[in-house]
Amino acid sequence: MNTTEDILKERIKELSCLYDISSIIVNADVGQMQETLKAIALSLKKGFQFPEHTEISIDTLIDSYKTGSVNEPLYISSKIQVFNKPNGEIIASLQDDKSSFLKEEQQLLDSVALKIGNLLERIEIQQNETSLKRQMERADRLSILGEITAGIAHELNTPLANILGFAELLKDDFKTDKIVSADLDKIIDNAIFSREVVKKLMFFALEMPQEMKLINLVPRIKNALALLDASFKKAGVTYHVKIEEDELWLKADNIQLTQIIFNLVINAIYFSPENGLVTIEAFQSKNYIVLKIIDEGPGLTKEALEKVFQPFFTTKPTGDGSGLGLSVVHGIVASHKGTIVVENNSKNGATFTVKLPKS
After folding, report:
1. Hey, is 81 helix, strand or coil?
2. What is the rounded CA–CA span in Å between residue 281 and residue 85?
3. How crowded is residue 47: how many other Cβ atoms within 10 Å of its Cβ?
């Protein structure tokens, strides 16, 4: 390429290529990333001096596309960055050993890498906005449910107390009648069970009084596990404690802190397979105490991940749970100005992570 006309044709071709790629990126569908990368790669290929001998490879953390194989000795590349962090690479490779790249073609590749990086930044921002919106919507739903739940709990307390009280009085009157006495026992047992459900509702609605004290989390975890040892053995599940420090101090309500540990560990035992392992991990950062409960169960579906802290939502069979345990935990954590999140593990099971402020 020696003539000014040839050089000008190449520059026009490169500018047309950048225009086409800009149009593709502007109209990109987040849900069809591979199709977008394919369109970019095919357009980029046309921008090179020898398009018939050039193959393009685009690789990102989201998706990738290749027009053909990469010829290692003859290639140029450009890194894709998202918020100044590596996120992938574009490679242009010549399949003809007699050909070579122009310096302007490296500039073209750099420009396209920058545009793809901008696209990926836009996608990440959109995903973060969607996630934040869902969290806010869930927080609003939980707040409304908390108010409704508090009202229900208050309304149920009085009639339950009356049922329990009169049933116990009647039992005294029918001591000699075994059939009636047995039926009254069933009434009393069910009334006590219902009262415990109401108590959980009160916890969820944050209606229970708190007594905030400076507490060392480590012995609380060890005591809870000692009490749950029989439950572990019955389920055929083992546990491993990962706590490197002897003291993890935070300001919390002792009873409610214990309830967080109990509910999360019991949940992990329930969903763990026989011979499964539950890992209890605790550590501290500058301002927070972090508690992690990791199980090896089946994990959670997409729906369950969104609804797991909602009251009365449960994946357990009917009769195995009220769907309030994790709602109670969420309510307690929120009342301590902390956070709780759940995510599926890379292989199997789920991890519940609780962050509570130290003071």
Report:
1. strand
2. 30
3. 25
- What would the two tokens of residue 298 be? 């089946």
Residue 38's pLDDT is: 93
Q: Per the structure block, which two tokens stand in for 332?
A: 């307690």
Q: Which residues lie across from 278 on neighbouring strands?
A: 239
Strands 339-344 and 350-357: antiparallel
- DSSP 8-state secondary structure symbol assigned to residue 201: H
10 and 119, same domain (yes or no): yes
The whole-model pTM stands at 0.48
Q: What is the rounded CA–CA span in Å between residue 354 and residue 263?
A: 12
For 42, other C-beta atoms within 10 Å of its C-beta total 15
Residues 234 and 348 reside in one and the same domain: yes
Spatial strand order of the sheet with 54-60 comes to 64-66, 54-60, 85-94, 75-82
Please give the Cα distance from 355 to 158 (Å, whole number).
36
Strand-pair partners of 214: 251
CA angle 44, 47, 48 (to 5 degrees): 105
Please, what's the b/e burial string for 289-307 (b: 16 or more CB within 10 A of its CB; e: otherwise)? bbbbbbbbbebbeeeeeeb
Evaluate whether 300 touches 344 at the Cβ level (below 8 Å). yes
Contact between 40 and 57 (Cβ < 8 Å): no
Give pLDDT tens digits for 69-99: 877 778 899 999 999 899 999 999 998 777 7
CATH of the domain at 127: 3.30.450.40
DSSP-assigned letters across all residues of 35-80: HHHHHHHHHHHHTSSSGGGEEEEEEESS-EEESS---TTSEEEEEE
Residue range of the domain that includes 103:
4-131
